[in-house]
């Protein structure tokens, strides 16, 4: 015959017997019990039945951790995962080696014609100078200080020297009035006498002249000079007599002119 559910006192007795492991003829038997809820059955049991009654004891402590077992065999490869996002741009790599030389390109289109400026490329150098004092010092450049013409500014009246600016062929001449003394005068290039003129004093005014053509390189120097002592009869008078020294470029050196044209272009 079914009984009513155990009272609170009976439940305490049942809990005590579970703990001690004893059973009685009229005790309630625990079928299952959990922490969240107990499932109980109850009824009258005989003494023999109660002898076989077993009550679950209190759960013991967790035992120590066992030793790590041997490594198992490698498992099969897993399925390929999804493709990840692209990474950031890396730093530039080192320059590569030079490639092979390419084929020669085709001929380009014809360019437009240039403007001729040939006149501005022609080198110009010319001078003509006089002197304002008579009887210059011997064996030193005569300073012709009266400038009549000086294209390019290559003659220096302060030194009496013409300094070559363009390599080429030059023409030089002089017309010297003399009086009261003999005249021994020469045309000098870089310290070397190129031509000499001697004119003796006859008691009258006279003119000594000379001219020559020679090749000059840039920075070459040309001047007039009295080459003999006490033979400096050069004379001048602003009212009626002059002594002149002149020179000019006949034509420039061809190679120099070609180089000048290329640089100008």
UniProtKB/TrEMBL annotation:
Keywords tagged on the record: Collagen, Extracellular matrix, Secreted, Signal
Biased composition (Basic and acidic residues): 97-106
InterPro entries in UniProt: C1q_dom (IPR001073), Collagen (IPR008160), Collagen/C1q_domain (IPR050392), Tumour_necrosis_fac-like_dom (IPR008983)
Gene Ontology, cellular component aspect: collagen trimer
Taxonomic superkingdom: Eukaryota
Span list, region Disordered: 57-111
Domain (C1q): residue spans on this chain: 120-256
Major localization listed first in the record, in broad terms: secreted
Subcellular location: Secreted, Extracellular space, Extracellular matrix
Matching PROSITE patterns: C1Q
Protein name listed in UniProt: C1q and TNF related 7
Organism of provenance: Fundulus heteroclitus (Killifish)
């Amino acid at each position: 015959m079914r009984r009513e559910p155990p009272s609170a006192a009976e439940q305490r007795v049942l809990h005590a017997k579970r703990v001690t492991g004893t059973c009685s003829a009229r005790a309630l038997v625990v079928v299952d019990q959990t922490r969240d809820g107990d499932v109980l059955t109850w009824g009258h049991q005989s003494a023999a039945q109660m002898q076989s009654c077993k009550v679950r004891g209190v759960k013991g402590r967790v035992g120590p951790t066992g030793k790590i077992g041997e490594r198992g065999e490698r498992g099969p490869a897993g399925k390929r995962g999804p493709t990840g996002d692209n990474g950031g741009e890396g730093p530039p790599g080192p320059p590569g080696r030079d490639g092979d030389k390419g084929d020669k390109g085709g001929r380009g289109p014809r360019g437009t014609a240039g403007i001729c400026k040939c006149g501005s490329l022609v080198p110009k150098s010319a001078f003509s100078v006089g002197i304002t004092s008579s009887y210059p010092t011997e064996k030193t450049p005569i300073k012709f200080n009266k400038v009549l013409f000086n294209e390019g500014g290559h003659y220096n009246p302060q030194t009496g020297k013409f300094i070559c600016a363009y390599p080429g062929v030059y023409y030089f001449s002089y017309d010297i009035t003399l009086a009261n003394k003999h005249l021994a005068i020469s045309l000098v290039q870089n310290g070397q006498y190129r031509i000499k003129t001697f004119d003796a004093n006859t008691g009258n005014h006279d003119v000594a002249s000379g001219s020559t053509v020679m090749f000059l390189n840039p920075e070459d120097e040309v001047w007039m000079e009295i080459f003999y002592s006490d033979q400096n009869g050069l004379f001048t008078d602003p009212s009626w007599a002059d002594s002149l020294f002149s020179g000019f470029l006949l034509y420039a050196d061809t190679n120099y002119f070609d180089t000048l044209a290329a640089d100008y272009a």
